Amino acid sequence: MTEIATETGTPAVGVELSERLTAGPHLYIDGRWQHSSDGGTRDLINPATGAVFTTVDEATADDALAAVAAARAAFDAGEWSATPVAERAAILRRIADLLVRDREELARIETVDTGKTLEESKIDLADVESVLRYYASLVEVSADRLVDVGNPAVVSRIVHEPIGVCVLIAPWNYPLLQISWKIAPALAAGCTMVAKPSEVTPLSTIAFVHLCEEAGVPAGVLNLVQGAGSAIGDALTDNPDVDLISFTGGLTTGTRIAKAAAPHVSRVALELGGKNPHIVFADADLPAAIDQVLTGVFLHSGQVCSAGTRLIVEESIADEVVDALIERAGSIRMGDGLDPSSRTGPLVSEAQLTKMHEYVKLGVDEGAVLRTGGGRPDRDDLSPGGYWFAPTIFDRCDRSMRIVSDETFGPILTVERFGTESEALALGNDTEYGLAAGVWTSDDARGERLTRGLRHGTVWLNDFGYYTPAAEWGGFGKSGNGRELGPTGLAEYQEAKHIWKNTSPAPAGWFPVPGDDDATA
Ligand code: TXE
Fold it and tell me: Which residue's alpha carbon is nearest to atom 25 within ligand 1?
């Protein structure tokens, strides 16, 4: 029996899942598991070791076209959208139950694929479960409404219908979590879809699609292809059969997808990351603020779209805060995610590791002061092939520096200092992104001014990083458009239709009827 092996010798996943995942096939099109049409495969690498741990099928553009065609045919057949809402909700709840059944195995898969700690993977899975249950409940409550048109004979209604065929593209930092934010509302709404996980971390999504199949999602409704965006991206996004593309990833890829979709007027929802300010005033609860600034930037080695990578701190407390952060950063226990003592793991890939080294060099060249980190941690116990990068802090930064303006997407904190509230607000808004921001102050009025003044999709006051399925998530500016989660996250997958019914039909009376006395008068 094949098991996905790790360097520690422990099987990465349980036997049941491991067999179907290692053996494949890994593409799921029109209800059939299949290999790539050209036999192509991709090796998956454990970021904690740099070693290949399994191989999956990699789709061709033809496979991607076939997946979209299957989703189109399934949608046009109309069965899924006509399935009673209660039944669709029951399937979502069944998927959630199966997820709970397999959570230990799924968590190990996510950890070996991404490098994140097992505890983080388990939290992700609990969140996936919540999202499934949230949309199952939400869709059961009709959002349709009556409109008063000022004529008692007319019944005017707004109803919501599935938008159609959706392409769901996810990144590698929260593979299953992010694709679940798309699959759950799309299924709830009655859409059909093609899911494309990141080629770097497809395994948990493959496992999840097995669970959806087991839960009774009909053939053609949920299709799965994985592969590099450069190979299959155009087939998925420049495609007249696609009604909506929901994408989470980088700004460059997001704008490319928006252009590809434009000729077809496909709806495009983008979540493109951020460069998130974390503002600390001198009157804040400092122990709490320091702890949350640390967590906000170094959790998951900073590979979080809402990571608080820009500390904007009041000058009078800046040295105290930065010194405390440096001390705490040095004590973060980094290690293999399967080791329960690890509090954070490696970066996901060699490409991300190289990117961090380049940003550190850039920061030093730009004149920022490197206070801690900046490279591989000085530890003999970390696997030599792993993608390790120490928590890094740059002090004395300013907005002219690219380490302050670019989304580094790794464990690099930059520190800017401010004197007045208006300076803090201006700095917090001085970014092309606008995904998330944090503010720490004990002054309620100031907190209210800042939370309203910051142009970001989520603002935490005296807290950082939390989200809930019932609250919208998304960004201002170049952090994207549209919203995931909450009722808006379901509306993304729906068309609003106005139905006007006259219970007492009558002529419009606008154009004169020949022979009518009034008309000839
Ligand atoms: O992302 P890409 P990458 C940011 C972060 C990171 C940078 C690049 O700054 O350093 O993006 O990461 C698919 N058509 N974020 O290169 O390319 C790709 O296969 C269709 C922020 O990994 O955006 C993957 O499934 N799809 C982010 C997905 O897009 C295409 C999380 C994301 O990959 C495609 C990750 C194409 N032409 C990175 N090209 C966040 N918002 O949380 C690629 N893809």
Answer: 198
Cβ–Cβ under 8 Å, residues 482 and 435? no
202 CB contacts (<8 Å, ≥6 apart)?
Answer: 26, 44, 56, 113, 175, 226
Distance 255 CA to ligand 1 centre (A): 11
Report whether 163 contacts 495 (CB < 8 A).
yes
Residue by residue, what is the 3-state secondary structure of 10-41? CECCCHHHHHHHHHCCCEEECCEEECCCCCCE
Distance 169 CA to ligand 1 centre (A): 9
Q: Which residues line ligand 1 (CB under 6 A)?
A: 169-173, 196, 198-199, 228-229, 233, 236-237, 248-250, 253, 256-257, 271-273, 305, 407, 409
Q: Which is the closest atom of ligand 1 to the Cα of 271? A: 41
For every one of its 521 residues, what pLDDT tens digit does the chain have, with 9 covering 90 and above?
344 544 444 445 444 556 777 788 999 999 999 999 999 999 999 999 999 999 999 999 999 999 999 999 999 999 999 999 999 999 999 999 999 999 999 999 999 999 999 999 999 999 999 999 999 999 999 899 999 999 999 999 999 999 999 999 999 999 999 999 999 999 999 999 999 999 999 999 999 999 999 999 999 999 999 999 999 999 999 999 999 999 999 999 999 999 999 999 999 999 998 999 999 999 999 999 999 999 999 999 999 999 999 999 999 999 999 999 999 999 999 999 999 999 999 999 999 999 999 999 999 999 999 999 999 999 999 999 999 999 999 999 999 999 999 999 999 999 999 999 999 999 999 999 999 999 999 999 999 999 999 999 999 999 999 999 999 999 999 999 999 999 999 999 999 999 999 999 999 999 999 988 765 44
Taking the centre of ligand 1 as the mean of its atom positions, its distance from the CA of residue 109, in whole angstroms, is 21
Report the separation in Å between the CA atom of 430 and the middle of ligand 1, taken as the mean of its atom positions.
Answer: 24
305 part of the active site: yes
Residue tagged active-site, from 110, 271, 407, 416: 271
Whose alpha carbon is nearest atom 31 of ligand 1? Answer: 249
Ligand 1: distance of its center to the CA of 433 in Å?
16
Rounded-to-integer distance, Cα 7 and Cα 3, Å: 12
User: What's this model's pTM, rounded to 2 decimal places?
Assistant: 0.95
Task: Return the residue whose CA atom lies nearest to atom 27 of ligand 1.
Answer: 249
Burial of 16 (0-12, 13-18, 19+ CB in 10 A): exposed
HEC string for 257-278: HHHHHHHHCCEEEEECCCCCEE
Catalytic residue check, 3? no
Closest residue (by CA) to atom 43 of ligand 1? Answer: 229
Indicate which residue's Cα is closest to atom 41 of ligand 1.
273
3-state SS assignment for residue 194 = strand
